[in-house]
Specification:
Number of helices: 4
Shape: elongated
Radius of gyration: 37 Å
Structural class: mainly beta
Largest sheet: 12 strands, antiparallel, barrel
Distance between the termini: 126 Å
Helix content: 10-25%
Order of helices and strands: HEEEEEEEEEEEEEEEEHEHEHE
Strand content: 25-35%
Length: 516
C-alpha cells in the first residue's frame, strides 16, 4: 500500500501544479497597450475614397457611406528569427456621414468598429496577451474648411481638414488611442474633364504609448507626418488609385499603402465602390494587403423650381400690335373698294437695307440679303430667322466635358447678338445652361450656371445691354439627348436661350450693330 499511496500523492501534486501554473502563466502575459491599429481614414465627402481633394459638399447636401474592409497581417511581432502574426486577419466596418453647411464649411462624423480579428497566441512565447476579437472604435468628428471660396467643379480646390477622435470604445481591440487624437490635413485637387488628381499633407497627433515587452514592433506608436496622392478617371464609372505614406519621427519608422479600384454611380443617389492594395513598412497597422467595398448615398439639395411664367422653348410667339381703330367712314356702294395689298408686300413698314425684307422680318437689317435667308446674305445657313409670329434660333452653344467657357468664336451667338441689337422688341433673354447627367446634382447645377454666365458675358462683349440678359443653371434636369451615349451627353452640355418678346414696332430707328 505504501508505494501506491506514494504514486497517488505524486500524481495529485503534479495535477495541482498544472492547474495553478496555467493561471500563473496567463497572469504573467503583458496586456497590449491601448492604441489604434487602423491607418486608413476613409473620406466621408467628395474626392477619392482614401483621402480628400479639397472639394466640399454644397450647402444642404448629405453623403452617407458604409464600407467594410479586410486586412491581412496588420500586426506582426518578431522575437529573434521568429515571426508571429499577432493580428493575422482583421475585418472592420465604418459608417460615415458628411453634410454641407456653408459654401466654405462641411461637417463630418465617422463610427468605426472591429467586426472580427484573430491571430497567433503568443501569451506563452512572448508573454503578450492577444487583442480582443471585436470592439467599437473611436468616433471621429471633423470640419472641412474651404480656403478658396469657389465651388465650381472644375476650379482648383483647397481645403483644411481638422478632426478629432474621442477616447471611447473597446480598449482591448486596438481600435482607439489612450487620449484624444487629433489630425490636421491640407487638401487640394482639380478636375480636367474626366481626370481629377488630388494631394493632401498633414500631421497626426496622439499620445505616445510603449510596452516593456521588448518586442520592437510594440515599442511605441506616436505622432506622424502623413501625405497622400490620388487620381480618379471617369464619370459614372471611375477608376481610382491612391498612394498613402507616413513617417513617425519618434520611432523613426515609415509606412505606406497603395490602393486601386473602381467606383460606379448608376443613378443618383447611389454609388458603389471596391478597392484593394498592399501595405509597406513595419509600422503597426500597415497590412500585407487590404480589400474594401461598400456603397454611398449622396443627397443633393435640388435647385429652386423655375418661375411659372417661363416657357422652356427656344421660340415664343410675337404678339401682334392691336389694330388701329377705323376712323374713316365706309365707302359708298357706288365707289369700288380699294384693292387689298398683298400680304407679302411691305406697305408701310421700314426696310432699312432695301432688300425687300421688312425690318420686323429681317435677321440682318443692315445687310442686303434674300427672302430665303431671312434677309441675310447668301454666305451660309441662317442661324436665326424671324417671322411675324416668332423668332427662331437654329442652333445651340455646346461645351466640352467640365468646361464653362464658350469654345472660341460662336457663329450662333454672333448672330443672336446682331438680332438682339437690331430688334429691341426682344425685351429680355433668359440664358439656360445645361449639363449631362455625370457628376452630382450640386456640381451640375454650379456648372450649368457657369455656362449660362459665359454665354451672357459673350453677348455683353458683343454689345447687348446686360439688363436684357439673365443667366440660369438647370443642371441635368432637362436633357436634349440620351445620357447613355457619348453623342447624347454632348447634346446635353449646352446653353439655350429663352426669349421674352414684347410688341413689335412698325416704325423705329434701328441702330447699326457694333463691328465684330
Amino acid at each position: 500500500m505504501g508505494p501506491a499511496l506514494h504514486r497517488c500523492a505524486v500524481g495529485g501534486a503534479a495535477l495541482g501544479l498544472l492547474l495553478f501554473a496555467s493561471p500563473a502563466r496567463a497572469q504573467d502575459a503583458t496586456p497590449l497597450p491601448t492604441f489604434s491599429l487602423e491607418r486608413l481614414d476613409p473620406n466621408p465627402g467628395l474626392g477619392p475614397l482614401t483621402m480628400g481633394s479639397g472639394e466640399l459638399l454644397a450647402p444642404g447636401a448629405l453623403r452617407i457611406s458604409l464600407l467594410a474592409h479586410y486586412q491581412r497581417k496588420s500586426l506582426t511581432v518578431r522575437n529573434g528569427p521568429d515571426e508571429y502574426p499577432l493580428v493575422l486577419s482583421r475585418t472592420t466596418g465604418v459608417v460615415s456621414l458628411a453634410v454641407g453647411v456653408l459654401p466654405w464649411l462641411e461637417l463630418q462624423a465617422q463610427l468605426p468598429g472591429v467586426i472580427h480579428q484573430s491571430g497567433a497566441d503568443v501569451s506563452t512565447v512572448l508573454s503578450i496577451s492577444s487583442p480582443s476579437r471585436s470592439g467599437l472604435g473611436a468616433p471621429r468628428l471633423a470640419a472641412r474648411l474651404g480656403l478658396l471660396g469657389t465651388t465650381a467643379p472644375e476650379a482648383f480646390h483647397l481645403a483644411l481638414d481638422l478632426d478629432v477622435r474621442l477616447p471611447v470604445g473597446g480598449s482591448g481591440a486596438l481600435a482607439r488611442d489612450q487620449g484624444v487624437r487629433g489630425q490636421g490635413r491640407l487638401m487640394m485637387g482639380k478636375r480636367w474633364g474626366p481626370v481629377a488628381p488630388a494631394l493632401e499633407v498633414g500631421v497626426l497627433l496622439r499620445r505616445a504609448v510603449s510596452t516593456d515587452s521588448g518586442v520592437d514592433s510594440l515599442n511605441g506608436v506616436g505622432n506622424e507626418l502623413r501625405a497622400g496622392v490620388g487620381l480618379t478617371v471617369g464619370y459614372a464609372l471611375r477608376a481610382e488609385v491612391s498612394a498613402l505614406g507616413a513617417y513617425s519621427w519618434r520611432q523613426q519608422r515609415t509606412s505606406g499603402e497603395l490602393l486601386g479600384g473602381l467606383r460606379y454611380a448608376p443613378s443618383r443617389p447611389w454609388e458603389f465602390f471596391a478597392l484593394g492594395g498592399a501595405g509597406l513598412g513595419a509600422e503597426p497597422g500597415a497590412p500585407r494587403f487590404r480589400v474594401l467595398a461598400g456603397f454611398a448615398l449622396l443627397f443633393d439639395k435640388p435647385p429652386p423650381p423655375p418661375p411659372e411664367d417661363i416657357v422652356y422653348e427656344l421660340v415664343q410667339g410675337l404678339p401682334r400690335a392691336p389694330a388701329a381703330p377705323q376712323l374713316e367712314p365706309e365707302p359708298t356702294p357706288s365707289e369700288p373698294p380699294p384693292p387689298e395689298p398683298a400680304r407679302d408686300e411691305p406697305v408701310s413698314e421700314t426696310d432699312t437695307d432695301g432688300d425687300g425684307v421688312v425690318d420686323v422680318l429681317d435677321a440682318c437689317i443692315h445687310e442686303r440679303g434674300t427672302r430665303e435667308h431671312g434677309g441675310c446674305p447668301e454666305t451660309g445657313d441662317s442661324l436665326v430667322s424671324l417671322t411675324r409670329e416668332r423668332l427662331v434660333l437654329h442652333g445651340q452653344v455646346f461645351f466640352e466635358v467640365g468646361v464653362t467657357t464658350v469654345p472660341g468664336r460662336s457663329r450662333v451667338l454672333d448672330q443672336v447678338a446682331r438680332v438682339l441689337l437690331e430688334h429691341p422688341e426682344v425685351e429680355r433673354v433668359v440664358i439656360e445652361g445645361h449639363t449631362d447627367a455625370e457628376g452630382s446634382t450640386a456640381s451640375n447645377q454650379r456648372l450649368s450656371l457657369a455656362r449660362a454666365e459665359a454665354v451672357r458675358d459673350y453677348l455683353v462683349r458683343k454689345g447687348v445691354p446686360a439688363h436684357r440678359l439673365e443667366a440660369r443653371g438647370l443642371g441635368a434636369r432637362r436633357p436634349a439627348g440620351s445620357n447613355g451615349t457619348p453623342a447624347g451627353r454632348g447634346e446635353n452640355r449646352r446653353a439655350e436661350l429663352l426669349l421674352t418678346l414684347g410688341e413689335p414696332t412698325s416704325a423705329r430707328t434701328v441702330p447699326a450693330p457694333p463691328p465684330p
